[in-house]
Write a structure and sequence with these properties.
Blueprint (H helix, E strand, L loop, with lengths): L2 H30 L23 E2 L4 H6 L15 E2 L5 E2 L7 H5 L18 H10 L11 H8 L11
Antiparallel strand pairs: 1-3, 2-3
Length: 161
């Protein structure tokens, strides 16, 4: 198998996982929305990568279409086009289940985020993301464990990692 074909197949599998995850999160939040009003933080860390520019698409930026003539997501209003978020960015149409959360201001996207550590190792970068301590390899636990350790025990907390 050629490298390009492998990357294409891996991208399709990743996108399929993201699409199902997006609808799962949206349904889960919708089912609990009327039962309580506790705030939630949902962080989705996609290992291996995802093309962020094809998830939250800068559809008003001509450079996006010039740089991606074959893989760009069509503009809003076109067949298979992005779902407008703010007049400049649009959401991939396969993630339409997330739009109600966006409109309720219950969803935000952190675009082009990453670690301040300039290490070029993919494995170290994953470890640093999970530990929340960029550049420090000796951290024994992850950021979620440390967060849960600071929450009073009387407060019921759910966490999945």
């Amino acid at each position: 198998m050629k490298r390009r074909k492998l990357l294409q197949q891996a991208s399709l599998l990743t996108a399929g996982g993201l699409i199902s995850m997006g609808s799962w999160v949206a349904r889960g939040l919708a089912n609990t929305a009327n039962t309580n009003h506790r705030k939630r933080l949902i962080v989705i860390f996609l290992r291996g990568g995802i093309d962020g520019l094809n998830v939250v698409v800068p559809y008003q930026d001509a450079d996006y279409y010039q740089a991606r003539p074959r893989i760009a997501i069509p503009r809003t209003g076109e067949k298979g086009g992005v779902l407008d978020l703010d007049g400049y960015f649009g959401l991939h149409p396969a993630l339409a289940d997330l739009m109600p959360l966006w409109k309720q201001k219950s969803l935000a996207f952190v675009h082009a985020s990453g670690s301040p550590d300039s290490n070029r190792s993919h494995f170290d970068a994953q470890d640093y993301m999970e530990s929340g301590t960029p550049g420090i390899k000796s951290t024994d636990d992850g950021w979620m464990n440390r967060l849960l350790g600071t929450i009073p025990k009387e407060i019921p907390t759910q966490a999945v990692n």
